[in-house]
Amino acid sequence: MTVMHMFLLKKKISMWKFLLLGLATLLITVNFSCRKMLDIQATHVSAEPQQWKSITDTKSALMGIYGLFRAALSNNDGQWLYGELRTGDFSVYNRNDLSAIRRNELNAAFPVLQDLSDWRRFYAIINSASVFIEHAPSVQVADTRYSDVNLKYDIAQARALRAFAYFYMVRIWGDVPLLTAAYDNGSFAAMPRTNSKTVLDFCDRELLAAAADLPYLYGVAPESYYGANQGTWSGALLNKVSAYAILAHVAAWEGNYVNVDVYTSFVLNNYAKANITYTDVNTLTAANGLFSQRFPSQIVAFGAMDINGESGQSGHIEELTLAQPIIARQKQDIYISRDTLASIFTDPYDLRFGTDTIAKAIRTNYITNYNSDMPVFSKIKVLRDGVTDGTYPIYGSVILFTRLEEITLLRAEAQAVLGRRDDAIRSLNIIKSARGLPIFVADSPENIVDAIFAERRRELLGEGWSWYDLIRYNRIRQNNPAFTTLIQNGGIYWPIATNVLSANNLLQQNPYWK
């Protein structure tokens, strides 16, 4: 069988597995029709009684929400084009659409930009979660296997996922319509955008309520969760620690660093209960490491398990970053230049990217082929089935929102903003020491906030944080007048797609993009 035949067969199997996994949700959630309704131009089929008859229905519907979330972030590599490329560390090779994003020219006439400006895929998540919240309780009447605990966990996950989707939308578009009820009859009412603070207040309330009901672990013996044990669900579902990690970021986006301190403190005091650990550099960057499979230390992540048929060609950062010698492709879409690498990794002993003085070589945990004109960003390189053909590679990396190292640096950020410099230094040094760097000393003349964000830049490179960190940094420091003006004028947000605006005359384009 040729490589092409193997690829096509695998793709067909993957497609069917995905469709079967999310079938129940996709039948009851939004579909992108041509009907003119709200800003999402969406409808969803009436929730017929037989769709909520058994525990099998609730499992399929809940997993479908997770599937929709991953699809929203992976579509056109949105996780990285939203969060990593704008004015960031990656340079673009021979793609004008990506160059426009990097220059913050988001209204340029490229299909990718138009698609990323469309928020309907996020409302698909939101409506799917709302449908679940409203209909799942009825399953208990029809199926006695659906226990109170099972229902509690399921509703909590749906509420957390809905809130998380709204948080993503606020970071991308600012003010967005706030919908909290399910629409079963395809008759969305036209609604204006809701102030982002109101939306984030809703996120905060929902996540706190969800956190109260979420467990640290699912399927702990002798109990099971949907007939499976703890190992099956580890790293796959949001848990109590996940909810508090998201809460911390909602608070940070609002500039409420008192709450950031509270929520990150909860995570760092309780992560062991969810079997979460810190990750060393080798485990972080190995092909079978943190970005592959499912691990408890992926505090919030959306996986792409090859065994479940979830891996593929698109929707992974490798699609943008890998080339020879990792795969046979000649040139990658985006890369980090040697000059930029030198400005990021300032210590030669950095275990992520630096100089191995014994072997007299460049460390390749983050970068491969350093001496080429386009070094390959290889921190994330999960290849499936041994396929390394440049035309048809199969990738399997997770979309990772946060891990323990990121939360530790977020806590340091909060401590620094709150004036607790010594505490901030201790938190920062946890990461610096683990990565082979000299610790930050108390009498250092360097600004502690600058040092924390410089460490975030190194540690989280390629994980979709660059743009959002740049915004938070400039809100704190306000030492870049041009970026401060961009924030004040709404230039940090994406424009709203024209087809979304045309579907709802109560919507207004983001002022910066008018």
Distance between the termini: 53 Å
> What is the highest CATH level, the class of the domain at 22-75 and 94-213 and 478-514?
Mainly Alpha
Number of helices: 20
Shape: globular
User: What is the correct CATH architecture of the domain at 22-75 and 94-213 and 478-514?
Assistant: Alpha Horseshoe
Q: Hey, roughly how much beta strand do the residues contain? A: under 5%
Radius of gyration: 22 Å
Query: Would you identify the regions where 5 or more consecutive residues have pLDDT less than 50?
Result: 1-49
Fold-level CATH name of the domain at 22-75 and 94-213 and 478-514: Serine Threonine Protein Phosphatase 5, Tetratricopeptide repeat
Give the spatial strand order of the biggest sheet: 1-2
Structural class: mainly alpha
- Percent range of helical residues: 40-55%
- Can you summarize the main beta sheet? 2 strands, antiparallel
What is the element string, with H for helices and E for strands?
A: HEEHHEHHHHHHHHHEHEHEEEEEHHHHHH
Q: Would you tell me the overall average pLDDT?
A: 89
Let me know the number of strands: 10
